[in-house]
Amino acid sequence: MRSSTLNRLFALTLVATLAACQSTPEQEDTAETEQQDQQEQQEQQDTAEPEPTEPSEPAEAMDEEEEETTRPVTADNFHNHPSNYDASTDTRTVHFAFDKSTVPSAAFGALKAHARHLKSNSNARVRLAGHTDERGTREYNVALGERRAKAVQKYLRLQGVSSDQLETVSYGEEKPARRGTSDMDYAHNRRVEIEYRAGRP
Amino acid sequence: MRVLVGILLLWLCNVLHASELEIQVTQGRDDALPIAVVPFGTPDSDPPEDIGAIVAADLHRSGQFDPLPPEDLLSRPHGQEDMIWRDFRVLGTDYVVAGRVETTGEGQYRVRYGLYDVPRQEKVLSQTYEPSGKGLRDVAHAISDRIYEHLTGVPGAFSTRILYVTKNIDLERPYRLQYADADGARVQTILRSREPIMSASWSPNGKRVAYVSFEDEGMPGIYVHDLATAERRRVSSYPGINGAPAWSPDGDRLAITLSRDGNPEIYLLELGSGELTRLTDHYGIDTEPRWMPDGESLLFTSNRAGGPQIYEINVNTGNTRRVTFEGSYNARADVTPDGRFMVFVHRIDGDFHVAVKDLERGTFDVVTSTELDESPSVAPNGSMIIYATQEGGEGILKAVSMDGQVKVELPSREGEVREPAWSPFL
Amino acid sequence: MSQVRKPRRMMADINVVPYIDVMLVLLVVFMITAPMMTQGIQVNLPETDSGAVGDDQEPVVVTVREGGDYHINVGEDQKESASLETVKGHVLRIMKNQPGTLFLVEGDRAVPYGKVIELMSSLQGAGVEQVGLVTEPPEPADS
Asked: CATH says B161-422 is which class?
């Protein structure tokens, strides 16, 4: 008889402890799921937020489709933008795209004018000074600047200018035209300057 | 005498936060060694230099030490006889540097110092120097070197110098080649010029420097300059690029970049005879040579695989192998004196950082977080890398430990500072 | 002991009743011993033991003498009396570098209570978290 009452007592405590054990995790679970729900809601809100900004993009695309001559000057098209060049020897700077040493087509007219002047004035001497923007290591940039100077030199030689009238030098990033660090400043600094040492037009 | 101690009261207050304004060390080691450098005693004179302050600044700048600010000292001993060990124990200071500067004659001094181990209560290092007034700074750096070596096992590099180029467009001659002590003091100007100066490099004995100057009507030439006599001579002025001089470890040759044959190639220039040997032969760009410590091979930058990467060429056999494969831009290598680690410029997401490559194990780490980092140069003890970067559009110098844990900003001066080169041991 | 059995098959169920008995006894044993075990730790520690002061951390002792003079056992001139400002300066320096330092206040029996409180409040003002009061053991009755 004694054992049976103890049994019941034990069973009661067992049930009680089990119930206690169960009850706490249940509460925690619900709390967690609530938190998760809230997070999900927040995430949904987050993903929803950028949507209103999207309609602005097509407007930019439309700008790019406009006429070349009237398109706005950006750091990306600066080197080949017609507003930087005229077809005369007044243009003394040829600009280049990032990491490129290709002479931009917009500069052809100006370079042809220089070539005509050099061919008709055999005493004229030109120094082509290559420059880069400040990104990258200095001596490597000297090498890149030389490539730009040589690209302009090659173009003028193809126009029939004597090699005696041309010399190249590269300053790399040592002589920036502009001191800033924006992409536009960098676009200004990637250049070859045409310096007349004699027979200035 | 039995003392009965009972903790009767216990109350919590806000912990005092010691938020000191650190000008130089922007990031030190978490486990920096606490050390107290007691201001040196000056019983009979007022010497022109504060030895204790220089030593404390040296140790602090290494990032390995956390010197106690002098105002926090509980007592100011100048030797073992007036040392109160408890004053340093309760401050948690493991080592104490203390000493005296005495006047022995007109402008002559006697400097005595000791390094004390607080837990063991003993003197572990001491020395006496007898410098002139001008030599006091050298003595201070020599003391720092010895303490650093005793406590870290690595020779100190506080008695070395930094060579660098400054540009100040407000000046008539904006470009200057200068050198200073490793702590930025005692600036000496080697050359002033209207035209750019670049790529300065120390001779292995630290007595001469080589650099590129565009002083000759804007055209580049490589010059060798004796620092003591200020004698200089032009050793290279070929058509095209004359650039990137690097002294060989024996001091007899310069590795240079010339484009006289059409595109940039590495040449060896025998300084005695002027004999020139072409080392590389590739239609791409080859430049920025740097000698390995054994003098057998050179590291250089080449874009033969498209973008710039670092290669190693054996100067005797011409055998070339590519060293870097991480990312699309790796250039301008320097190497630690033991030849184990290579430091170089590495581009990630358009930003340029200093990276370290373990040449033995092949591991690779980016150690700087600033943008536009360039011209890394390793200290002669291989502990720190000095490099140039930009802050607020101005070129400044910074230093970082090989593991990237310690970051130090070097005192800025007027104008831009660039292209630092750490001297060898002098 | 004799039970009524169904002769057809063996009893398949385990009789859990004895196990429950055993478990209950164990439970009771634990229920009784558990509080005893925690009580066992509550030994009356000898109050002479300064257990809070570790070997690596040295307490700093501030003494208030009979005349109301302050002394602190760090710095030069330890034998001379120090002003409250000097004491506070030393405490601030120590707290800045070793915030966990234990400070002990050693007050003479004849010192006015306010003098000790003044010292302790300035310690508190310097950010001290732990202050111990040093007392002498009571004198034996026969002396």
From this structure: mainly beta
